[in-house]
Prior knowledge:
Radius of gyration: 64 Å
Number of domains: 4
Structural class: alpha/beta
Helix content: 40-55%
Largest sheet: 5 strands, mixed
Strand content: 15-25%
Oligomer: single chain
CATH architecture of the largest domain: 2-Layer Sandwich
Strand order of the largest sheet: 6-8-9-11-10
Number of helices: 20
CATH class of the largest domain: Alpha Beta
Amino acid sequence: MRGLLTPFSRHNPLALRLAGAILLVSLLVMLISIALFVVREYHQGTQRLEQNLAQIELTTLPGLSRSLWNFDEEQLRVQLNALVSLPDVEYAVIRWQDWNGGSKMLSASDSAAHLPQEPHRFALTYQRRSGEIEPLGTLELGISQHSLYQQLGQQTIFLVIFLAMQALISAVLIIILLRQLLTRRLGKLADATRQLTLSSLHHPIPRQTEPGNDELDNIAAALETMRLRLLEDIQARQSADQALLKERELRLDNEERRIRAESANDAKNTFMATMSHEIRTPLNGIIGLLDLLQGSPLNPRQAHYLKLMQQSSENLLAIINDILDFSKIEAGELKLEHRPVNLVGLIEDTLCAYAGQAEKKHLLLACELLLKDHQIIMGDEIRLRQILMNLISNAIKFTEQGHIIVRALDHPQGVRIEIEDTGIGISAQQQAGIFDAFAQADQSTARRFGGTGLGLSVCRSLSEIMQGTLSVDSIPGKGSTFSLQLPLTPAPDQPTLPDLGGSPQLVISEQDALQQPLTRMLNLANGRPLRGASLAMLDSAPASAIALIDINLLHGQTCTEATPSGWQDRAIFICHEDMDSPPLHYLRLPVTRTALYRLLAHEAQPGQDTRAPATSPALPPLRVLVAEDNPVNRSVLQALLRSLSLPEATICDDGQAALEAYQQQRGQFDVIFMDVEMPGLDGPDATRAIRQYEQQAGLPPCPVIALTAHTLNSDARLVREAGINQVLNKPLRRHTLIQCLQQLSAQR
């Protein structure tokens, strides 16, 4: 039997365990059923026995009582034998007393008697006719439950055998059914699951053909769902791997492109540096010589030619600066300074620099400076000036008639500067790309006005580096307004605005572009401006009023002729050039806020311009050593130094000669001008050698000023690391040279 069950249990363990569990449960139920059956049968047997005793008491006791009354022993014996013959009666005993009072007994018993469970006694009585009951004796019956137990045992054995056979047969049938309905299907599902591979995932798990909705179908459906999800996961993983592979290939491609772009950018920077050096070197000679010629006696035609040459050289320099600044921004080498800047003075100086160009085109150039909290700010003066110069220059370039107004006002996020013109304007389509590099409104504009299209791109980039914005609002044919929004931080101490005390001021002009800025700036200083377009306004003006008069209203009259009596001390004329009547006050266009407030505060004397004329610098007699390989640049620098009344400089054509000259003079120089790129020993190496000689000889370091045509910050950083104190970019300008020498003199 065990040999048969072993392979079955090996192949059908679940069915065998289920069958065993069912058989065990069946046996338990069978035992409970048998126990209940035995209790029930026993209870019924005891009830039947009690019923038999009651029947004996009802039917047999009267007969025994008559036989005993009659002393019929024979009859008593027969009756006792009849009682003993009953199934449950083991013996019967009658006890009585005779007439003499002696005890007598008569008994009968079964030959196969069993030990009685308990005796039962019955009283034998006789009822007289009078109704009196007289006791005769007692009947004792020995009742045995052997027959009840025997019957219960037989029935129990039969029931056990029957139920055991039934449970066994049921278990066998259950095993067979489980094998047919459960284990085979589970085995198939297990085999199908064990055989799952990447290739077989595309085939569905086999299920029974007839439809069903039992647990096995749910398991099969769950396995099928698992297969589909695994397939989806694998496909998703494959897609992800492919995407990662593509991303890796793209990253490698981008890395390769980046390397190529960096190489190209390095090559471009090298090219720009070389181009800067090669262009700025001759341009330094041209502009320097033009500066020198400007101070020499010239006839009108020569002066005119010189002015044209200066304008052409300035335009060329502006183009080169735009290209180089654009290269700096793209290379990420543009660094901003953070120092106090007089924003009012910066805007006024920049605006006044274009007064000549505006006057030549008969344009009104005006400023409207409403700054109060941001008069002095923290920022980069050079880059702010560069943005303003580009925007003002463009406004003048693209405006044929009308005006250009530069506005500046406080803003919650810093400063807002607007440049308004009445030029050709820009269409909405062209505004989208006007700030792109090398872009202009159209090709006809480029041919008509010239330019590279880099100025606005550089301005936009500079404003973004300053965390600001640059935008344009324009209508074709009516003009444009460029708005510069910069988050500039105000300096701690701001100048106090003058207080005009509410005094009246007359602003008389037919040009609204001149009236409006003056009126607003007067309101800012607590003035009370009154606007008018005719000199007749003077007749009804208050006696304490001051009149700001546009000279265009004179119509050929002199200022003295046009000024009514009593207004000579209170009239201020606005003009482009010096007045013909010195006793009168005047303001030159563009009217700056500083000049306006100063004149109204009576700081200027009659007949004087509000802008002080330039004075020649006073420099100490500096001993200068120059190292420059280009002969033209040597001559220009020597002439510039001579124009500043400095002693004759020591000139060297390379770094080695400069080092030897410095050693021969044992460092007896106040400043060294060192060209960066020279054959043999270049500027940085020569400076290192000079610094080493100074340390060995115990000499104080002599200031070294590098002259370079390179503009990238990396080049300037390398120059400073060599021990050079300052860097001047070519072309070298006279005012820049003066400023540098003045700083050195102040540090001595």
